[in-house]
Design goal:
By secondary structure, the protein is of the alpha+beta class. The mean pLDDT is 90. 28% of the residues are buried. It has helices at residues 14-25, 78-81, 99-105, 169-183, 202-212, and strands spanning 2-10, 30-40, 51-57, 65-74, 86-95, 109-124, 128-138, 149-150, 155-163. It is built from five helices and nine strands. It has an eight-stranded antiparallel beta barrel with strand order 1-5-4-3-2-6-7-9.
Length: 218
């Protein structure tokens, strides 16, 4: 399982967000350059359609690494409504570079692909939290990474995730929510597909952060 929230931020304020995250997280950022392919099953593979994501980390050396990720359904009910993060099932595993060929042989078809470029922080703060800030780019033709163009020019997506279990998801959700409060002046983070748009205070908050050079490690 994982807890997740996301939001959008104007590219002009990303540097200020990086300064804030650096101060809050106390760790060095990691470069993010991921080629993401979304594959969907065809009807003959089962009554219920299946979707998997293949993630190729293009920055890994000496050669790119591949991960397969399956995102399941979100938790529902009164408990889910009372928390500010989305709790959903998620399974991921490292795979070889032949994974795409394998899924094609199983009958999966490429639905769409994206190139995400930006940075990420991974740290411990009541839970193992990851924050990624990236521009999302689409490709004019299959696998044309070098020709990728932004889906939403001038905007970047911020995603906060943390692994959880059925036993501790409440504590993890609380840790994620608490951390997100520190980012509120720059970006509004909410459950996926419940976008609240950009934050009106972002420009002023960014100016303040840029002028004092960052926050304090907490």
């Amino acid at each position: 399982m994982e807890c997740v929230v996301q939001g959008i931020i104007e590219t002009q304020h990303v540097e200020a967000l990086e300064i804030l995250l650096q101060g809050l997280c106390g760790v060095q950022r990691e470069r993010l350059r991921v080629h993401e392919l979304t594959l969907k099953s065809v009807p003959n593979l089962g009554v219920v359609s299946s979707e998997v994501r293949l993630l190729c980390d293009l920055d890994q050396q000496p050669e790119p690494t591949w991960t397969v990720k399956h995102v399941g359904g979100a938790m529902r009910g009164a408990g889910a409504d009372q928390i500010s993060v989305l709790v959903r099932t998620m399974i991921e595993s490292k795979v070889s570079k032949n994974a795409l060929r394998m899924f094609y042989s199983l009958g999966y078809k490429l639905d769409h692909e994206l190139l995400k470029v930006g940075f990420a922080f991974h740290f411990q703060r009541g839970a193992h939290i990851s924050v990624s800030v990236s521009s999302v780019n689409k490709m004019p033709k299959i696998h044309a990474i070098d020709e990728a163009v932004p889906v939403t020019p001038g905007m970047q997506i911020v995603v906060v995730t943390a692994p959880a279990t059925p036993e501790n998801y409440s504590e993890v959700a609380a840790a994620v929510s608490s951390f997100c409060e520190f980012l509120a002046p720059l970006v509004h983070l909410s459950k996926p597909f419940v976008s609240m748009g950009v934050v009106p205070t972002a420009a002023a908050a960014a100016a303040s952060l840029m002028s004092d050079g960052g926050g304090t490690t907490l």
